[in-house]
Design a protein that fits this description.
The protein is an alpha+beta fold and about 140 residues long. The protein contains 3 helices and 8 strands.
């Protein structure tokens, strides 16, 4: 089973952001490594999300996207754009809960779909990441 850690930090503009580590690696670094083969110099150009989106009582990271970001066919933005507007350049994933696990799968860069003029970015072999639900929810309650 994969391990996840959410770490609150103060961002560049004094806002509280949450860095995500999967198996002790920065999630942005994992994404950048994966995207490099098809994204070139813009691989991994994402930003962390804010504490109020990540931590409980928000259910965004429990597969219930917050209202403002609920336009990705039931997927949750797990990373946002460096400009500060999440939907400008998000990475989204399907977050599925069972009694014992939380799974991140079906990753997508919505602006690089099959019909994109910029070319399709295929994440079929990225993930899935499966976490112990108790540990995952414990991480989400840290905020």
């Amino acid at each position: 089973m994969d391990k996840i850690r959410f770490e609150e930090r103060i961002g560049e503009e004094s806002e509280k952001i949450v860095k995500i580590y999967i198996n002790e690696r920065s999630f942005i670094d994992l994404v950048k490594e994966y995207e490099t083969s098809f994204a070139g110099s813009i691989a991994g150009d994402y930003a962390w999300l804010w504490s109020d989106v990540v931590f409980l009582p928000s259910r965004h990271f429990l597969g219930e996207p917050i209202y403002e970001l609920d336009f990705y066919n039931g997927k949750s933005a797990v990373l946002g754009c460096e400009c500060g507007i999440v939907e400008c350049w998000p990475l989204v994933a399907k977050i599925t809960l069972t009694q014992d696990t939380v799974t991140w799968s079906d990753f997508e860069q919505p602006h690089r779909g099959p019909e994109s003029a910029g070319g399709h970015w295929d994440y079929r072999t990225f993930g899935p990441f499966v976490f112990d639900r108790k540990e995952y929810e414990s991480q989400l309650s840290k905020g």
